[in-house]
């Protein structure tokens, strides 16, 4: 009887140990794949906005921000509310840490979007400068160099990179395609296609650039009009997203004991998680509706 119980215990221990090793190995594999993907995407986003920062630093910053947010949440929940247990405080801290982890990537994407908007705004003036240089008898390379010499950020910097590729022997068509892929601007993709087509067909490049500039100007006017018409919808998205949290803050000020009891229960925490998920889903749904592509 004793031997049977002993061997059953040994088999159970071995099974649990093997299962844990498999789970740990699988977790390490998933973490490694996610780290590789994160570093690759972060490197691309940093290169897009020309920030000289290793992608691993972005990962370190995300982990540090997540950890600091989680620690602050544990301290606040443990000192400000008597009804919230340590276990529940740690659970809330994990949610806050997970929410803060992608914040640096969101900031990079925001900076890239703002840079692209500014690039598109400066593109019309750059096309006018190139067209004027061509009318004055300059070659297309000299006209592009004139734009790179201007004090216009970020478009002058992108044209400097274009000129560096040309000086290294890269054909103009290939350099324009590289710049279009690097910038990610639909307007400049139209410009590069127009220049390449005009060079291949022997068309009048000056008139082509003027027509493209007019098209970009009209697209910008329509885009600004659409943005003005959808401004109320975007404001509603912000207000609807902030309302539950403002209401929670107000209820804490009015009746803190009732809110402590609510937040100290599993049902209350589950309700808050559901509210956060629904608010985020509603916010992004409204943003998707109000973001009209022109």
Largest sheet: none
Tally of separate helices: 12
What characteristic shape results from the CA principal axes?
elongated
Architecture (CATH level 2) name of the largest domain = Up-down Bundle
Q: Remind me, CATH topology of the largest domain?
A: Receptor-associated Protein
What is the CA-CA span between the terminal residues? Answer: 79 Å
Pick out the low-confidence regions.
none
Work out the radius of gyration. 28 Å
**How helical, in percent, are the residues?**
over 70%
Q: How many β strands by DSSP?
A: 0
CATH class descriptor of the largest domain: Mainly Alpha
Proportion of beta-strand residues: under 5%
How many domains, as an integer?
A: 3
Which class best fits the helix and strand makeup? mainly alpha
On the 0-100 scale, what is the average pLDDT? Answer: 79
- What is the chain-wise order of helices and strands? HHHHHHHHHHHH
Give the arrangement of secondary structure elements.
Elements: H1 2-48, H2 55-80, H3 86-100, H4 103-135, H5 140-148, H6 155-167, H7 172-183, H8 186-201, H9 205-229, H10 231-254, H11 256-263, H12 266-290
Description:
With 294 residues, the chain is mainly alpha-helical. It has three domains: 34-46 and 54-101, no CATH class; 117-225, Receptor-associated Protein; 231-290. Helix content is 86%, strand content 0%. It contains twelve helices and no strands. It has helices spanning 2-48, 55-80, 86-100, 103-135, 140-148, 155-167, 172-183, 186-201, 205-229, 231-254, 256-263, 266-290. Helix 5 (140-148) crosses helix 6 (155-167), helix 6 (155-167) runs antiparallel to helix 7 (172-183) and helix 10 packs across helix 11 (256-263). The longest helix has 47 residues, at 2-48. It is elongated.
